[in-house]
C-alpha cells in the first residue's frame, strides 16, 4: 500500500501543504489539485470520507478548518489510509501544541519534516510518536546551534571591520597633521601658523564624529564604509 499524494486544503480552497510521492508534471499536479478541491469542498458534512477520482481512491478528513486529503490505489485499504492521516495530525498536534491552520502557514517546513519522518515513498516508515518527536527536536537543536554560530561570527566580523576602520581614521588624521607640521604657512604678520585647507578641516570633523560614535556604540557598517571612502 502506497500513498500517491497528500494535500492539506483550507475551507476556501487554498492549498496549505502538498506532498507528492509519484512523478507528475506541474500541469498534471495543478489539474489534480483543482479537481480534488472541487470534489472535496462540494461534499456534505455527513458524506462518506472516501471518493473515487480517475484510477485512485481519495481519502479525506476534516480537522477544524483544514481538509487532510490522501490518494491511494483502488485496491488499497481506505481505513488504513485514514488512520495514517490521523496519525499525521496527532504528530503535528504534539509538536505544535493544539495545531491550527496558522501554525502550518507560518511554520510549514516543520509540517513537511514531520511528514517525511512518517512516510517514505508513500509508505509508513515510523509509527512511534516519540521517535518522530525526538528526531524533530534534534533538528530544531541543530538549527538553533547553527543560528547562534552565524550570529557570533557576524558579530566578530563587525568588530574586526570597525577596528580596521579605526586604524584607517588614525592613519589619515596623523597624515594630515604631519602635512601641516611640515609645511607651515606664514600669515601677513610674519608669524608661522598652521593654515589648514578645507579638505583637512572636513577630515578632522569626520574623524572626531567617528570616534565619538564609537564611544557611544552607535557606529554602523554604512558609516564605516563612508569613512573609508573619504
From TrEMBL:
<dbReference type="GO" id="GO:0016482">
    <property type="term" value="P:cytosolic transport"/>
</dbReference>
<keyword id="KW-0333">Golgi apparatus</keyword>
<dbReference type="GO" id="GO:0015031">
    <property type="term" value="P:protein transport"/>
</dbReference>
<dbReference type="InterPro" id="IPR011012">
    <property type="entry name" value="Longin-like_dom_sf"/>
</dbReference>
<keyword id="KW-0968">Cytoplasmic vesicle</keyword>
<feature type="compositionally biased region" description="Basic and acidic residues">
    <location>
        <begin position="180"/>
        <end position="195"/>
    </location>
</feature>
<dbReference type="GO" id="GO:0030121">
    <property type="term" value="C:AP-1 adaptor complex"/>
</dbReference>
<dbReference type="InterPro" id="IPR016635">
    <property type="entry name" value="AP_complex_ssu"/>
</dbReference>
<keyword id="KW-0472">Membrane</keyword>
<keyword id="KW-0813">Transport</keyword>
<keyword id="KW-0653">Protein transport</keyword>
<feature type="domain" description="AP complex mu/sigma subunit">
    <location>
        <begin position="3"/>
        <end position="141"/>
    </location>
</feature>
<feature type="region of interest" description="Disordered">
    <location>
        <begin position="180"/>
        <end position="199"/>
    </location>
</feature>
<dbReference type="GO" id="GO:0005829">
    <property type="term" value="C:cytosol"/>
</dbReference>
<comment type="similarity">
    <text>Belongs to the adaptor complexes small subunit family.</text>
</comment>
<dbReference type="InterPro" id="IPR022775">
    <property type="entry name" value="AP_mu_sigma_su"/>
</dbReference>
<dbReference type="Pfam" id="PF01217">
    <property type="entry name" value="Clat_adaptor_s"/>
</dbReference>
<protein>
    <recommendedName>
        <fullName>AP-1 complex subunit sigma-1</fullName>
    </recommendedName>
</protein>
<dbReference type="GO" id="GO:0035615">
    <property type="term" value="F:clathrin adaptor activity"/>
</dbReference>
<dbReference type="InterPro" id="IPR044733">
    <property type="entry name" value="AP1_sigma"/>
</dbReference>
Amino acid at each position: 500500500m502506497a500513498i500517491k499524494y497528500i494535500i492539506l486544503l483550507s475551507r476556501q480552497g487554498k492549498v496549505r501543504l502538498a506532498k507528492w510521492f509519484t512523478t507528475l508534471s506541474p500541469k498534471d499536479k495543478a489539474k489534480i489539485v483543482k479537481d480534488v478541491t472541487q470534489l472535496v469542498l462540494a461534499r456534505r458534512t455527513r458524506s462518506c470520507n472516501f471518493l473515487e477520482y480517475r484510477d485512485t481512491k481519495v481519502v479525506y478528513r476534516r480537522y477544524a478548518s483544514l481538509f487532510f486529503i490522501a490518494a491511494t490505489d483502488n485496491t488499497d485499504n481506505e481505513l488504513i489510509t485514514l488512520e495514517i492521516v490521523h496519525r499525521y495530525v496527532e504528530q503535528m498536534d504534539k509538536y505544535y501544541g493544539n495545531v491550527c491552520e496558522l501554525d502550518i502557514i507560518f511554520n510549514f517546513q516543520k509540517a513537511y519534516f514531520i511528514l517525511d519522518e512518517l512516510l517514505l515513498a508513500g509508505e509508513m516508515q515510523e509509527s512511534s510518536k516519540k521517535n518522530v518527536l525526538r528526531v524533530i527536536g534534534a533538528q530544531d537543536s541543530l538549527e538553533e546551534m547553527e543560528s547562534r554560530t552565524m550570529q557570533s561570527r557576524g558579530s566578530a566580523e563587525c568588530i574586526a571591520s570597525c577596528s580596521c576602520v579605526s586604524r584607517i581614521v588614525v592613519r589619515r588624521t596623523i597624515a594630515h597633521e604631519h602635512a601641516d607640521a611640515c609645511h607651515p604657512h606664514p600669515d601677513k604678520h610674519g608669524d608661522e601658523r598652521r593654515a589648514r585647507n578645507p579638505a583637512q578641516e572636513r577630515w578632522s570633523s569626520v574623524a572626531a564624529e567617528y570616534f565619538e560614535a564609537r564611544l557611544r556604540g552607535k557606529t554602523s557598517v554604512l558609516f564605516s564604509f563612508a569613512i573609508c571612502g573619504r
